[in-house]
Amino acid sequence: MEGYFDSVTILAAFTVGVVILLLFDLILLSGKDHHVGMREATLLTIFWTLVAAAVGVWVFIAGGTELGIEYATAYVAERALSIDNLFVFLVIFNYFVLPDLFRSRALLFGIVGALIARAVFIFFAIGIISVFEPVLYLLAAILIFTAYKLITSHDEEIDPSKNLVVRVFRRFMPVSEEYDGHSFFTVKNGIRAATPFALVVIVLASTDVVFAIDSIPTVVGISKNQFIIWSSNAMAVLGMRPLFFLLEGLVNLFRFLSYGLAAILAFIGVKIIVETAIHDQFHDLIHGIGVPTDSVSITITLGSLAIVIAILVISVIASVILPGSKDKHASSDEAAA
Fold first, then answer.
1. 324 to each of 111, 210, 211, how far by Cα in Å?
2. Closest listed residue to residue 261, CA positions, set 336, 316, 327, 332
3. How far apart are CA 328 and CA 318, in angstroms?
4. How do residues 219-274 score in pLDDT, each as one tens digit?
């Protein structure tokens, strides 16, 4: 169906669906504060993955093979980035000594913040690109610079106390030393004060903005379709909460994830530059190696998906073969102490 996913109605309907899923998560899945065990985390991860797969099937059927592959590539890339984001969340939770009972709810607030940040950046970025395409070079530069930072700052510790938003917040609002359930505010000695839980949510929200700045250029380098960009981001973000509890005890399995993500970001950054600067010549080159003209775009998209998956697989295999403890993820407890 030509132009099906260019429809504002479809985009709006999908967004309503995302809100319904969030409410479902809030009311039924996260209604009570509790420790999320491996069994629950596994089942919920499978559930959200199946939801994302259902959206992918819809895209393949209604939008065609090329859009379907773009969605799959974007989803895999965003899912990989979300893993690195979750380890940052772990550092934040450990720093603020957030009790296990409240971690699921804090993550839900983080997910809402991530969705809002991504929605704003997506519609802003697409609007600029539609009137000024050279901005793609800026997005490519952001990706390549982020890839460089991932490699060079691999061992840097994260200190939530240096968060600018938290420092400003503390100037205007007293903060209690103790949690009061998952309340944002409490009253101590007649004084209304914010709780550490409020600080956790504030830090998560501010990091969501930073993550969105890295995330959106990545997916824009994979697809220019607004629905694909938004849906792949939304599906990856919705599955973050249970994934956190699955990965919490498996940090060593992702020792080389940062290097893998750096390679993916650099690849997509170069891809943006090539497709923007020499689009026709690049397509002619692919056609010249025997790919039919009407299959060039699909071949490029499929190749991108294969490269992204291959990089992720190699980074995980390398982590298993060469385990180590001196990395930013494995040392998250020390960083937060």
1. 30, 28, 26
2. 316
3. 16
4. 888 888 889 999 999 999 888 888 888 777 666 566 787 788 888 888 888 888 88
Dig out the tokens for 21 from the structure: 């899923």
Measure CA of the first residue to CA of the last residue in the chain; give whole Å. 55
Instruction: List the Cα angle 205/312/22 in 5-degree steps.
Output: 35
Using CA atoms, how far apart are residues 237 and 247, in angstroms rounded to an integer?
15
Return the pLDDT at 33: 66
Measure the CA–CA gap between 227 and 11, rounded to whole angstroms: 6
What is the amino acid identity at position 302? L
* Length of the chain in terms of residues written: 337
Q: Confirm if 270 and 140 have CB atoms less than 8 A apart.
A: yes
Alpha carbon distance 233, 240 (integer Å): 11
Task: Check pLDDT > 60 for residue 328.
Answer: no
Q: Higher-confidence residue: 191 or 31?
A: 191
Distance CA 121, CA 232 (A): 14
The Cα 263–Cα 62 span in angstroms is: 32
Q: What percent of the chain has pLDDT over 70?
A: 82
Report which residue type is found at 286.
Answer: I
- Is the pLDDT assigned to residue 331 strictly greater than 50? no
Q: For position 16, what pLDDT does the model report?
A: 94
- Confidence at residue 232, expressed as pLDDT on a 0 to 100 scale: 93
Q: Indicate the average pLDDT of the chain.
A: 80
Instruction: Check: CB of residue 150 under 8 Å from CB of residue 262.
Output: yes
In the chain, how long is the greatest CA-to-CA distance? 77
Say how far apart CA 68 and CA 50 lie, in whole Å: 15
- Residue 182 corresponds to which tokens in the numbers above? 């998952």
Between the CA of residue 333 and those of 91, 166, 191, 202, what are the distances in Å? 7, 20, 32, 20
